[in-house]
C-alpha cells in the first residue's frame, strides 16, 4: 500500500510509520518538525513538512494513497480544536485529491455504549470531567469524519500505554469493549494497518482494547 500518516511524531503515529515500513508499504509522514520523527531514514519513507491545517499544502501528501491515517492529539488541557480542525483539513484535501480511505484515531473515553453500570455511571464521568476539552474536540472530529462522505473508519482505544507489541487486541464495532481499560500503542498501530484493508469496517466506529 501507499499510505500517509498525520500525527506521525506522536506515540501511535510513529508506530504506524515504523510498522508500515516493516510491512513493505510506501509511507508519507506529514510533520511540522522532521527532527521529531523517530523513524530513521528509509528508502520507502517520504517526510513532508507541512501545516496539517492547510488543505492545499497537504493535498500532495494524500493524492494517490491507498489509505490515510490520522492520529492527531489535542494539545494541553484547555479548550482546543486541534483534532477537529486537522481532520477537517485532511478531509478537504482527500476530497480534492479523490482519495477515499481514511482511518482516524480518537478515544473510547467519551463513549458509553457497551460499558457496565459502574464504568458508565462513575468512572467515565470522573474521567470526562478531567479530559472534557480533549474529549469534546475528538467528539467534534468524529462528526466531521462521519459527514465526510469518505470510506472512513474511526478507531477508539482506551488509555494508551508505551509498552512493547503483543498482537493481542479485542475489538467491537459500535460499542466499547467491556473491561477494556488500556491498550499498547504498538498494538493500536498494528490494528490500524489491518483495518485499512478491511472493507467491512468502512463507515463504522471500532472500539479496541488489550486482550
TrEMBL record:
According to the UniProt entry, where is the signal peptide? Answer: none
Query: Which one of the record's GO molecular function terms can you name?
Result: riboflavin reductase (NADPH) activity
Instruction: Domain (NAD(P)-binding): give its ranges.
Output: 7-198
A Pfam family matched in the record: NAD_binding_10
Protein name per its UniProtKB record? SDR family oxidoreductase
Q: Which organism is it from?
A: Amycolatopsis suaedae
